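Re: adenosine-5'-monophosphate-propyl ester structure - here you go.
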Amino acid sequence: MSENINTLLKESRVYQPSAQTKAAAYIQDYESAYKQSIADPEGFWSNVAKELEWFTAWTKVLEWNYPWAKWFVGATCNIAYNCLDRHVKTWRKNKVAIIWVGENDQERIITYGELYRQVNRCANGLKKLGLQKGDRVTIYLPKVPEQIVAMLACARIGVIHSVVYSGFSAPALANRIQDAEAKLVITADVGFDRGKVFNIKSVVDQAVANSPTVEHVVVLRRQTPGVTLATPKEIDWHDWLKAEKAVCEAEHLDAEHPLYILYTSGTTGKPKGVVHVHGGYMVGTYITTKYVFDLKDDDVYFCVADPGWVTGHSYIVYGPLLNGATILTAEGKPDYPNPGRWWDLIERYGVSIFYTTPTAIRLLMRYGEDWPKKYDLSTLRILGSVGEPINPEAWEWFHRATGENKPIMDTWWQTETGAIMITPLPTVPLKPGSATRAFLGIEADVVDSQGNSLPANTGGFAVIKKPWPAMMRTIYKDPERYKTYWNTIPNCYAAGDICHKDENGYLWFMGRADDVIKVAGNRLGTAEVESALVSHHAVAEAAVIGKPHKLVGESIKAFIILKQGEVESHALIQSIKDQVLKELGKIGVPSEIDIVSSLPKTRSGKIMRRVLKAKELGQDPGDISTIED
Ligand code: PRX
């Protein structure tokens, strides 16, 4: 039996960039820009780095001691300095940096100058609490501007931040505080979610009770009267900073100084503390934000992620601020108070770049196209998607709902890669469902388990062949686990995803290698089957797993959520199977289909297939600290 993955899904639609998109784009000719960048990657990355400010220059661009990389060796810099001081010195000092909208429509607008002052006060406050370069701070805040302020303040003085998404439970938070040995936790009294108030402080109380390294807890009190604080250990955010000066020198840090730890477990296993550093991460997030979204000074950039995830770190906070962009960030969910929420925000603030997720698009699809039609979306010019394969059906819907002529950047990357790796640029012809090609300076391939390049249309492992500046430097306190990324497949970084390249070199991600289903000697990725399922008009969302089967090895079981108004029936199930048959052939057709009302997802929206599988087979699901529901 071949170890390669079968590719069944055929998608032939191609969208060319509009004249308007072409006229605006930084990169006019991807092919030649890519060739040049790959001929001399160190030259390419050092030219990018020169667009930013360094306190002292590097003596060597890359030191590669497999699998350990150091980029911009000998240089000193500070990412927060590049996000703030670099702009405050120019006309951008009064430019809007952040437009924040609360779930209750409260609005806060913060300029670069004001953000700079708030960050400096916060950095001084950190120093007053005794925090020093290299110490760790856990940030457990809802989506409020203080989350961004706290991250940048840590970065400014070389303190390492560990942002934990504020939906995590007390044990999950405690585990992350303890692993990082954080001295300080920054939190809030409450967060808001679909109109409900949820108490965050009580979660922190439980977590801190078991975390002896924590000396202080700073609390942003959003409610009046505010919660009572246990002084002197607990401090009110405003009291903490009101006497602090708005000036604080940015620490000159080695380019390899850690910027943050971000715990990821994604869909599998025990959380790992992915470590990113100031220099390389700054270069990677800066240039990907600029080129992928074609970011210009007059854009309003809306990324729906939470800074608790890597997308928030790289594409709400660091990448956009490094570019001096105006960012819109909004607390709350896409369907609250109604499914027009995001379209309304786009209209209200004249958003031009909109970066979202397939899971959110599928959620909005369920409510139909009338919602986006109610709003003026004409300011949009570039769209983005991240987090999962975007199935062609959702891609087409997103494209139509936003006016048919805006390119969708399907960006593939990971917490570990730090920045976008596989992605179109706005001038690259698009194929719905494909993340297209490698970003400049990135060498990607699809290989077998020995690292041999596979021919077109053969599924295999997605790998990166050379180090890149924004790559993680290690797993916190677990270098052995870091090494597994680089020694699973000889001489390359194995992402753990399966993928195939088509005859034009376009990459199609097919799911996680761990989720591959083996049916009668064929190996299928989950994404293709799920994509075929959601191409049926009645299906809103789908997840598939493999179940042991005496005859064929594994059989496919599908769990699906129907669109609003659709009713389960024998005929409907049959027509869904027929649809998959038409799309993929017999091999892809699930033998069982269960209609469900929800699917287990990570808090960032990814389907946890291993939880479905464990439940189906009556097994232990392992760590489920990241599960949403
Ligand atoms: O399986 C891939 C999927 O998300 C994984 C990375 O998850 P995480 O570290 O949480 O980061 C998410 C935000 C970058 C990948 O290994 N993934 C992410 N983006 C895509 C994707 N799969 C297909 N297409 C994408 N655009």
